[in-house]
Amino acid sequence: ALKPYQTGPNVHFVSNIDGTHMATTLKKVNPETTLFIIASKTFTTQETITNATTAKEWFLNVAKDPSTVAKHFVALSTNGPKKNMFEFWDWVGGRYSLWSAIGLSIAVHIGFDNFEKLLSGAHFMDKHFQTADLDKN
């Protein structure tokens, strides 16, 4: 739905621990120009930890320099060290809330101007649902 609005880099999502999906995705990216955005509300979900570990191992195998990891990996979470992390509130609905820091990958992909328009449209609809008569909802 947002493809026509793409102004930023390509974005790839790996949301399960299917090794084929991860391998196929890693073949498409350049480790020198890739930013891994690891989204997890608590960083206790095994699938997320497994995928993050796989991506980091792949990256280190290619990059060879562990000090470069911090330039290519960021976290979106409510839990953990604040370095390289975009925080969001613990009451936000985890990976499903594009309106929080979880929406970073969308913002990067469609550009921050378009993301601001998306947020504005969502705000408009929130206000509509709160104030419009039931027959107008």
Automatic annotation (TrEMBL):
UniProt pathway:
Carbohydrate degradation; glycolysis; D-glyceraldehyde 3-phosphate and glycerone phosphate from D-glucose: step 2/4
Q: Name one GO cellular component term.
A: cytosol
Record keywords: Gluconeogenesis, Glycolysis, Isomerase
Catalytic activity entry: alpha-D-glucose 6-phosphate = beta-D-fructose 6-phosphate
Q: Does the keyword Isomerase apply?
A: yes
Q: Which Pfam families match?
A: PGI
Q: Name one GO molecular function term.
A: glucose-6-phosphate isomerase activity
Q: Which InterPro entries match?
A: G6P_Isomerase, Phosphoglucose_isomerase_CS, SIS_dom_sf, SIS_PGI_1
Asked if Metal-binding is a keyword of the record, the answer is no
GO BP terms: gluconeogenesis; glucose 6-phosphate metabolic process; glycolytic process
Q: Which family does it belong to?
A: Belongs to the GPI family.
Output this protein's name. Answer: Glucose-6-phosphate isomerase
From what organism does this protein derive? Caligus rogercresseyi (Sea louse)
